[in-house]
Amino acid sequence: MSIVAAVLGGVFLLALGGLLIARNLVYLAVHLFVVLLATAGLFALAGADFLAVAHVMVYVGGILVLLLFGVLVSRGRLPGPPRTEVRQPLAAMLVGGLVVTGLWAVFSGELPQPVGIPPVQGSTLKPLGEALIGRYLLVFELLSMLLLLALIGAAYVARRAAVTPRNTLHDAKR
Amino acid sequence: MPTLPDLLFYASTLLLGAGLVLVMSRSHAVAALIGVELLLNAALLNLVGGSLRHPGVWDGPILALCILVVAAAEAAVALALVLNLYHQRQTTNLHDTTSLKG
User: Fold this and answer.
1) Can you tell me the distance from the alpha carbon of A32 to that of B7, in angstroms, rounded to the nearest whole number?
2) Predicted complex ipTM
């Protein structure tokens, strides 16, 4: 297990470093892909098998494709690769570094250690599904409504408003 | 050698830091969105790491599933906003959208 954890951690760190260095949005997406896969691997290592599979499906199958689609559609006919500007990287690095240092100190400090994790027996699918349909039924229904409403809203916002005239207020002021 | 919950917590800390840096310093809207996804991923890792300490209690995994759904909804809405922004202003640079600036 420790070899798998070390390999996963190495891949995770490399891809995270690439995510911080990359300026090309496609490279950013590729690094995000590797980070997401390594995260799913960590979930699987922790015995959360359903969560690992759901993570890959939702993030890689849904969100990553959506991000790339957003990059493609919002480019027009600009030449060259889609790049992002970087503003004030030192200040951002400083804040990020402070947060990481503080949290790292907390997590490596006097946390109550577990008395011993029992090895994972079989799949978590059945107990998780029973919990989702039993005790957490209201949460489940609310989540489905939230997702439905958000998708309808997204489709409404993203439509091309052909009816509105072009010379609205901000066009006139430009 | 850190234990497995510690490993998850450290990974979530690094993800949080990287997400913060991306959100704060990248000016392309999609790059900032990638940062937000990293922040949500950090929360996921934290929940799974915490739920390792309480086997048999499903609060952590259920909350993680909630975050997964919220992340999907957030990405859909945010990309719709990016597309709308591009249609109206022909830009996706967050520093060019300053019409509310006082």
Assistant:
1) 19
2) 0.91
